[in-house]
Design a protein that fits this description.
single chain, mainly alpha, 2 strands, 20 helices, two-stranded antiparallel sheet
């Protein structure tokens, strides 16, 4: 637990300092909805250096972990299951060696072959990709970088990096190309999704979602189609198809308790606020902000269904909940008057901190183990 608390403190300090430095240098910058490309730069609330530096310590400790959550499986795969022989790539490509996430395994083989590094070096490499992706995502689009980082950490979203590394790598790859989502570059974005699919098959969820998120938030078309997608995911999670997928392990009794209702409530906050302030959003939000709203709604729908199903539905929102990191600070800035916005901001800071404490101590997710650093916290 001290490791995660220390990283949290570091990220807050660096991001706050970075935002103060950026504000002092860009006195005339404004933040708000950007309806044309000429004002898009106004979304930035921090300089690039400090945005990247904010995630540096998280990358280091995620890379040095051992034997926590599903890390043991990745350790075994790196140390014992793959030799780092380039011939293994041929086996993966031609199907001689049947593996889930073949591109992930190809990257592993290439890394091991050319670096001869340890599994911690491999974890650090993956964490580097993930952290740079998130930092750039927030740097480009968050109107309050520090608050987005606070939301990212206190909702324990960072734990996907140590428990679901391969799927979160697929998430990170797609976030690198979020500009194509914004600009509706359909073919290039679909190619990226297919690329991510070869890392983790769940990335295909983006294909149906992509074609509905430009509907007006809360419109009949969006509500109907989002519910259809959610229903399809529910049926999929209950079908035998899961047994041959990347989610096969989630069908065991260990993962069949569903999503924690407290987490469902925590992740639903942005969409609840967006619904309450939907008239204001329709007046002032840019088209891309409305996409964030729709993705937040889909996140909430998946989590709600996940309360009554297996862990499959709890993993699917991973791709979309990242946009909550952008949406919530935008709502607090633009959907309320200044006094109300500050009051809700304060309440959210307290509420999310309480959830983080609960997740670390009560839910037992604050464990950290590193053989290389000789650290064990249970």
């Amino acid at each position: 637990m001290p490791v995660w608390w220390g990283i949290f403190a570091y990220m807050m300090i660096v991001s706050i300092f970075g935002m103060a430095m950026y504000k002092s240098r860009v006195q005339n910058a404004t933040v708000g909805p950007a309806d044309d490309s000429s004002t898009e730069v106004n979304y930035k609330s921090i300089g690039l250096f400090f945005a990247l530096a904010t995630f540096a310590l998280l990358m280091f400790f995620v890379g040095q972990r051992s034997y926590i959550f599903d890390t043991t499986d990745y350790q075994y795969s790196y140390e014992n299951y793959f030799r780092g022989d380039l011939g293994e790539i041929t086996e993966l490509i031609n199907g001689t060696r049947q593996e889930k996430g073949p591109l992930f395994k190809i990257l592993l083989v290439l890394f091991k072959h050319f670096t001869h590094g340890t599994y911690n070096d491999w974890f650090t490499f993956v964490a580097l990709i993930q952290c740079v992706s998130i930092a750039l995502f927030l740097y480009k689009y968050s109107i309050n970088f520090t608050y987005s980082v606070y939301f990212f950490f206190t909702t324990s979203t960072f734990l996907w990096m140590v428990n679901g590394m391969r799927q979160f790598l697929a998430v990170a790859i797609i976030l690198f190309f979020v500009d194509w989502l914004k600009e509706r570059k359909t073919i290039p974005f679909i190619i990226v999704v297919i690329f991510a699919y070869w890392i983790h098959s769940s990335a295909l969820i983006w294909l149906p979602v992509y074609f509905i998120i430009n509907y007006e938030p809360w419109s009949k078309k969006f509500v109907i189609f989002s519910l259809i997608i959610t229903l399809a995911l529910f049926l999929y999670s209950r079908s035998s198809l899961v047994d041959d997928s990347d989610y096969a392990y989630l069908t065991s009794d260990q993962y069949n308790n569903g999503v924690n209702p407290i987490r469902v409530l925590v992740m639903a906050v942005p969409s609840i606020i967006a619904f309450a302030q939907r008239k204001r959003i329709n007046e002032v939000a840019s088209p891309f902000v409305k996409v964030w709203v729709n993705l937040s709604v889909i996140t909430t729908e998946c989590y709600l269904v996940g309360m009554f199903t297996s862990g499959v539905m709890g993993r699917m929102p991973m791709y979309f909940q990242m946009f909550n990191l952008l949406l919530l600070p935008w709502l607090l800035k633009n959907a309320f008057d200044e006094s109300m916005g500050k009051s809700i901001l304060l309440a959210s800071l307290i509420g999310y901190f309480a959830y983080f404490w609960y997740d670390m101590y009560i839910a037992g997710n604050g464990i950290y183990n590193s053989r290389s650093l000789d650290i064990i916290f249970t």
